[in-house]
Amino acid sequence: MAVSEGLAIGALARRTGLAVSAIRYYEAQGLIAPWRNAGGQRRYQRADIRRLSFVMIAQQFGLTLPEIREVLSGLPGKRTPTPQDWKAISVRLRTHLDQRIDTLKRLRDNLDGCIGCGCLSLPKCKLYNPDDRAKSHGSGPRYLMGDAPED
Amino acid sequence: MAVSEGLAIGALARRTGLAVSAIRYYEAQGLIAPWRNAGGQRRYQRADIRRLSFVMIAQQFGLTLPEIREVLSGLPGKRTPTPQDWKAISVRLRTHLDQRIDTLKRLRDNLDGCIGCGCLSLPKCKLYNPDDRAKSHGSGPRYLMGDAPED
DNA sequence: CCTTGACCTAAAGTTAGGTTTAGAAATTAC
DNA sequence: GTAATTTCTAAACCTAACTTTAGGTCAAGG
User: Fold this and answer.
1) Is A17 close to B143, i.e. CB distance below 8 A?
2) What is the pLDDT of residues B32-55, one digit of tens each?
3) In 3D, which of B71, B28, B21, B25 has the Cα closest to residue B51?
4) N vs C: which end of chain B shows fewer Cβ within 10 Å?
5) Is-above-0.70 flag for pTM?
6) Is nucleic acid strand D under 7 Å from B35's C-beta?
7) Cβ neighbours of A118 in B, within 8 Å
């Protein structure tokens, strides 16, 4: 097997620790774009190991796959990404992470404020601030606190 | 309508901002336990407004429903929870939150270390530490980094 | 009394992020 | 040259956290 033929999906899976099915799924989500060999099988560049590694790291940071795709769009399309390229998107990732940490800290501060006041069900409690409501995990609409009457 | 008859599910929904279907779902998950009136309809205590509010707040903090049920088990079963009771479980919630913040901070530090070194795909990179891999959102096994060869 | 709105249950649908399965074709190993 | 691996596609299945739907019952107002 010649060096320049690229990696088969199984090899990429072994190199990244991902399941083969996950790699195919990521392709369907637009996170990675292999080419096909004569027999129709997927072939990957060595740089794709790094790419998928980045995906895994970004997931730990809580980014969704669409968000990761967005961040990855900062990479050069044609040429193999350089360390500089990776550094640039790592910085973008750090921005996401910083925001997440700030949000959680703000929630913590609000909680601290509420521990003493026992206002848990009052609309005025900062914990009900819709801005803080993470459109977190799970689907479907999450209803926000309406204008509840007294109590 | 007499004061002591309790709240109907629609009233509770309006007071909390939750959907009626969500409240029923929480009951199925053991997060709240209404009684039934003569006609078989659910009736809630006023303290349940606070209880559901707590559920919503805990969700913002990233707790799963089973985790929230666990935290809520710290509340007295029979008597109406006092501000002290709420304070106690708020402290438990804060512990969860602190852990999450610490984990994210640790990830951020690792990222900072990696931005410079460009090691993104190296097994030695701290970002691959399995301990840091949040068993995050989404189901099914997440394969961890195996012992990948060089590169 | 009767209509309208709120409520009931059970089951199916939804989204994210994948995995599993089934049957067929390509590769690799011997 | 054949057997054993891999890979292929498409579709179904999985979990969490809900919503929607369907068909029927309860409660409140006039």
Assistant:
1) yes
2) 999 999 999 999 999 999 999 999
3) B71
4) N
5) yes
6) no
7) 83, 86-87
